[in-house]
Amino acid sequence: MVDLPLHNIQLEITVDMATSVDFCVRYCVQRHFASAATWQVLSFTVFDATLHIFDAAKTHLHAAPVADISVIHVSGHTHQLQIQNRALFLFLCPSASSLAKFRATLAWAVVGGPIQGLASESHGDVWVQHMAVAASILESNKAFPSDVLVSSLTVAKFKASMAPLHAVCDFLLTSPSVCHVYEKLLDFEAAYLADTAKCRNFAHLMVQYRILQNQPVWATGQRSNSSLNAIFRLCPHCHHDLPLDLMFAVHIQDATRSCPLCQATLNYRVFQLGHLVRAHRTFRIKSASGKILALEMPPLPHDGSFETYLASVTQSIQSICPVAEDSAKLCGRVNEALDVYMNRCLGAFDFDVVHAMLQDLRNLSNWGRVFAMHTNSDYWSRPQIIQASIVRYHKYLHLLQLNNDESSVGLNPTFDMSNAMYAHACYAKDFQAFFLKATGRPFTVDPHYVDAGQVIATESIAKMSAQLFHQWARHYDEACLPRTLSTPWPRNEDHEMKPERNPFQPLESSTIEACCGIDILFDLAPGAVSQNCKKVVLPVIGTPFMDVMFPLAERAPILFTLKEQWVKASVAGYASGWWETQQTFAIS
User: Fold this and answer.
1) Splitting the chain (588 residues) into consecutive groups of 10 residues, what average pLDDT does each group show?
2) Could you say which of 1.10.10.410, 2.30.29.30, 3.40.50.1820, 3.40.50.300 is the CATH number of the domain covering 11-124?
3) Are 363 and 114 in contact (CB under 8 A)?
4) Is 507 helix (H, G, I), strand (E, B) or coil?
């Protein structure tokens, strides 16, 4: 048996629902006469219980009753077409699903009834052609496995990583106010803190992102495991409940307010002091004379001034420690506590998780893509789609390693590759180890990527997508992007021929109304991706990873309000746990 090259398989089934007797099947195969060099593409049409065979020029070659046709497996992906048990053709089909449909079409044509299974699949599922793309990717990967590293990412892990994003989208779409969003984020932090081993929510994603930044997660020192909701819910002076808008102002906007009940001043420093005093009401030391000296911490200052409180502590120390040695010793104990409680953000973590979630929500480009995926959640919840995305993610990382010494033009991933990478990154330590092994370089995160506000131009994305296409075709001999509706295959000097395998053929034979075409994404239809666009780009396998996908201003306006009202804390960066700037307080 000759070792045969793999060619694209195209299967298109049309059912006449009126008569249920006419079936048209176009199936691209290869014909074998004497040697491998003479294989060619033929088309098979089933009409009125007869199989008609045409060549590429649509010349009619053969016709035979379907009842006389049989398909016999030879070896591997090679099959034999027989007429009355006489061999007529050898053909190569790596797609098990395509072969099954071909066999089913022949079988139903013999009976002469409606093709119930195929008809229901074609008309009942709007994503049937996209599912065929995923099936082709998986079957091709199985038939022609690539020598790339494979991670531990699974369908279950992928879904677990995406579930928090869907939950965030759900509540953002229905949130009536910024305070409602803030309350939900507080709930996320409290729920994760209550069960860090099992809870997988938005707060968990922020913790994993912190690990990717190689920053500490948990607070150091003897601080309690109180949630931020528990800390800011009660006035540190009178311990009565505070309204949510006041909590938001003090915690998020670094504002100074007054307690509605006791009228005491509230700011972030007061809450820090309140946390310190609750944990250390008394400091004790053994004096030089052997006597135990006790410092009772004074009550919180009504004016909310930290300097006022330090002056009160200094006066108390001087009153009970006339000896300089004892005073220095007690000051040292107090300063240790001040460093733990005043130079760290409040809460059980080394960073403010709620601020981290708000900062992430400010990245409107990223959340535009998340909402586009959420709108298309039926598609992205399918195991076959996820499996195909993981396969392409592994191949993409392999190209990143090969691209280290190649063109300076980057490789823009498709949405499925980026989705799988994000899902894997939610298991930060495992992802870091795999990324280093797969690409030969450590994974790095720019901690200021949100504030930079840098949006990659569409022209740059198009160039990087073309670069990905060419390198993918060169190394895998496969198309990684669907051909646009109005342009030919991308071409360059290094790769003039189109790739041997094209899993996107089902999409190129018809228009999918549910998804904007790639032409629209690359602005071949001017203005189609403007903020006022009525269409929503539903990302699928092969959709380039772009900034503009979802009309957020129309569908999720709360994100823009959040972006305006979220203020980075001015007090030494408490929102990020003081990993930028350290402050020291001392009592002399």
Assistant:
1) 33 35 39 46 74 78 86 80 83 70 76 46 65 91 90 96 95 91 97 94 95 87 82 96 96 93 95 92 90 93 90 90 88 88 87 91 84 88 96 96 67 92 96 95 70 62 83 90 56 57 73 40 40 59 76 83 74 51 52
2) 2.30.29.30
3) no
4) helix
